[in-house]
Design a protein that fits this description.
The chain is an all-alpha fold. The protein has 2 domains: 1-36, no CATH class; 39-89. Helix content is 65%, strand content 0%. The radius of gyration is 21 Å and the shape is elongated.
Amino acid sequence: MSDVPASEDEGVERIRQVRAEHPNLSNQLLLRFDFYDPRYEGRRLFSELLGTFMLVFVAAGASLVNARFGGAAVPYGAQMAAPGLMVGR
């Protein structure tokens, strides 16, 4: 049996079946294969674009703010750590 449901009804039915067999599983574990579902392609693309924009915005923004305010407004360590802190959970 494929992990990707053929239809939405089949996917919902599969989730109900797994929940009945394993009532203590979280939704995250139950829906772990949703990433491969082609119905969510738009969400994946939007997430990639938004994440890339925010990463570039934070990385370039720290340098631009520092340059605008004389080179001492944002410490070098903060400029380097800002993108990493944005990406990390």
